[in-house]
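The instructor's notes for this session suggest beginning with a concrete chain rather than abstract definitions. Hand out the sequence below and ask the class to guess, before any prediction is shown, which regions might be ordered.
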Amino acid sequence: MRLPACCRCPVDRLAHRQSGVALITVLLIVFLASMTAISLATVQQIAIRRSTVLQHQQQARLYTLGIEQWAGLVLMRDRQDNQIDHPGEVWANLPATLPVDEGVLSGKIRDLQGCFNLNNLWRPPQDTGNPENPASNLPSAPERPVPAIPSSPAAGKAGLDKAQLQFLQRLLTRLELKPELAQAMADWIDPDPDALFPDGAEDSDYTVLNPPYLAANQPFSHVSELRLVKGVDREIYDKLAPLVCALPPGVALNVNTAPALILAALDDQLELADLERSLEERPAEGYENVDEWMNAVKITLDAPTKALLSVDSQYFLLQAEARVGDGRAMLYSMIFRDENGVRVLRRSFGHQD
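After discussion, reveal the predicted structure:
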């Protein structure tokens, strides 16, 4: 016969309560173990994902370096085939994409001598072989010297190149920008502390800014330096940057690859529409020399200006991109080419600026 609850032994009631607590404890332990296992599995998945992305990123980076070597071979073979550079050549028409395992590659080569060279605003001394010459400020590849600055009739006594200054002023005018900016750009690279009158800018104009800084007083090392020049804001920079470059002083403008807007700034008498038409009618193999181009556009230039024109190029910019799985890499390389070979002067991953 079962006794009523009130008559049960206190020991039985205690045992019943302890079994309930033990069950709750077991359930709590199982819950905590499950949460720990889920957390560890999540951390493991994140680690695997991170490792995969890093592997793809590194693989994409290596692919861009492979594109750089390939571009060097293309440019070298082009130099061996001919001495004229124009938009119809192989280097200027690389395949849009190159498929690879788990990804895709792309590369584009731009002729840097198809734009206005900001460093031509100031003529360096004739003795350009001096390694301490600030004109040789472009970084070189390891254990390879920076190429010597080409000499030209325009080179001689150091000083402001007024013809190039007027060239830049006309270009700014055609871009609907203030031509006075050219004087501030010239002051940025000239070695003296005196500002050009009336719109130049030297240290006194920059030390009052917040934060203060000094004028470079040496050639532009990169186009992005324009952002520091007095009067150049973001809108002006975005308009001007695609049409200018920062090469050693004395490097010539290639009339075969320069856009009509830049060529039109060579002389006040040139019409943009006529130059655009001349580019459409350009020979398939490009103009063989500067005189042929001048005859085609019916223009006469003075000797110093003509000396800074050419139909061949030595400086190129490679833009390479690689996508592998979840990884992506961008590479910008400045490449120098001459009869001795091809070498990389500057290399940057990510954004060019």
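Then share the key points. The longest helix spans residues 10-81. The chain has a mean pLDDT of 84.
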